[in-house]
Amino acid sequence: MGGAVRSELRKVFTTRLWWGLLLGVVFLDGLISFGFSFLVGADLGGDNPSASPFLHPNAGTIQLVFSAGFVYYLTPLIPLTLGVLLITSEFRHKTISATYLAVPVRPVVVAAKLVAVVVTGAMYALVHDLAVVAAGGGVLTLRGQPTFLDSGDVWQTLGVSLLTFVCWALLGFGFGMLIQNQIAAILVGIGVGFLAQIILGIVFGLLSWDGVSRWLPGNLSVGMLVTQDPTNGAQASSGDPYFSWWVSALLLTAYGLALSIIGSWIASRRDIT
């Protein structure tokens, strides 16, 4: 098993794939956090407190700054794509047969690939944390705004982001195992991870099914990462739109593991040519 895991990790880190997507994490997440940090403490509406929701920041405001890419369903696309590419590249380049011949027990191959997905996803999350703290936290410091980096809630967000990245990478791996065609799997993954969630969120909102929208993977991510009201009470709310962070974490983990296991089980019963 150890040799199979090392082999899978070597496949990841000897290609340009991993650092190309890693640069995407740095630039995308850093840029979004950079932009959001300018809203903290900004008076945008005069006497209307709801127009300046981040005028009086708290720990939840900084959680939002560091997790804004997840709020807009953009950041999850990177680990999702990573998970898809880590498995579909084998099918695309016809190397999956050699992999199965090298390790004849297919469950061992799948388990090794899952470990590689988890390790790589966690590494991406660490880089994400560094990027958002450097970009967003740097701007906040220069503007004289609090970073709340002494708050346990903010550090919880930075820590839980590791699990969030891993879960989305597992979802991508599951899509890749199910579909196997690289382009199709990426398109389906993006469709589900981005477009479908936006559309379903709008539909559920129009139908007043707020409780149903909690179950969407993107909203589970936000529920894991933003645990305090980022507006510090400036905007009225009809209720908590998310599950508690640990329930969200359990559900998103279940989604990722379920899709990965189902995809792997189906793929293991297909003939490899």
TrEMBL record:
Keyword tags: Membrane, Transmembrane, Transmembrane helix
UniProt superkingdom: Bacteria
Parts of the chain that traverse the membrane: 21-42, 62-87, 108-127, 158-179, 186-209, 245-267
Protein's name in the database: Putative ABC transport system membrane protein
Organism this protein belongs to: Nostocoides japonicum T1-X7
